[in-house]
Amino acid sequence: MSDAITRDDEEKRPSNLTAQVYNALCRAVLRGDYPIGQSLPSEGELAARFEVSKPVIRAVLQQLSALGVIEIRQGKPSIVRRVSPRPLEYFFSFAMMETENGLMEAVQLRRGLETYIAQRAAEHIKVSDLKKLRETIKTMEAARNDSEAFIEADLAFHMTLAEASDNRLLMFLVQALRGTIHETVRMLHVRGMLPDRSATIARHVAIVDAIAASDPEAARLAMSAHFDASEERTMGSSLKGPIMLEPEQIIDFLERESS
Fold it and tell me: Average pLDDT of 2-7?
């Protein structure tokens, strides 16, 4: 069957050719016409297939690249990529920096997500994930006097928990908050505003113990208590208002993570 934009397509979709081709190419990728890791046809071949000009195809490929669906290569056909949370990471980083109380809203979003994630993890966690969680706690204990290592271990704990929830979209959302949360926590360490690290570790242990006991409600309450304690110390009046982080800090962090 031809992929050309038909009269029915024009009636069902916006008249914009780019939008029509974008929708058609998305469907082709999703149904597996172009598997992950394989190249798309050349711009010329795609233009002929959809009966549109090369500029239309280039605009569509740029949109797919911005979403992380494909990788555009200079002088070579684009490659289909596995869906990644990377575009969301940049989006949330910018969104939180332009919001009046972006830091507060970010923590509230994390709280809503991660209390549910802890509950799901208690129901779905694998032995391997439970082992990873305990290992990250050991790393946190060993890094009591190393702020950067402690932050990294803390973030690794929450990412492992998201993976253990057995819900890829939840994991994507937590990952999307990683860059801003990392730089925010680092800033709080510099200001000496974070709670005692022993208490922080103890709260993480309580979360893991509840999950290991396969008790969803206890896991949810343990995560909620963790956010109660964190908010009490870090969400004071001195941190209200716009996030005072340089965009370059977050972007640098995200680029380091992707390298």
Answer: 50
- DSSP letter at 99 equals S
Beta bridge mates, 147: none
Could you report the per-residue pLDDT of 83-129, keeping only the tens digit for each?
Answer: 888 888 888 877 777 777 777 777 788 889 999 999 999 999 999 99
Render 195-211 in DSSP notation, one character per residue: PPHHHHHHHHHHHHHHH
How many whole angstroms separate alpha carbon 96 and alpha carbon 91?
A: 9
Gap between the Cα atoms of 91 and 102, Å rounded: 13
245: CB partners within 8 A, 6+ apart: 97, 180, 183, 184, 187
pLDDT digits 0-9 by tens, 205-250: 999 999 999 999 999 999 999 988 866 655 553 444 444 555 555 5
Tokens, residue 88: 């969301």
CA distance 254 to 259: 9
Identify the H or E element spanning 231: helix 216-234
Cα separation, 249 vs 240, whole angstroms: 20
Q: What is the DSSP letter of 39?
A: B
Dist CA 183 CA 246 (whole Å): 9
Supply the pLDDT for residue 114: 93
SS3 72: strand
> Model pTM?
0.73
* SS3 category, 53: coil
Which positions ≥6 away from 176 have C-beta within 8 Å? Answer: 85, 88, 89, 91, 92
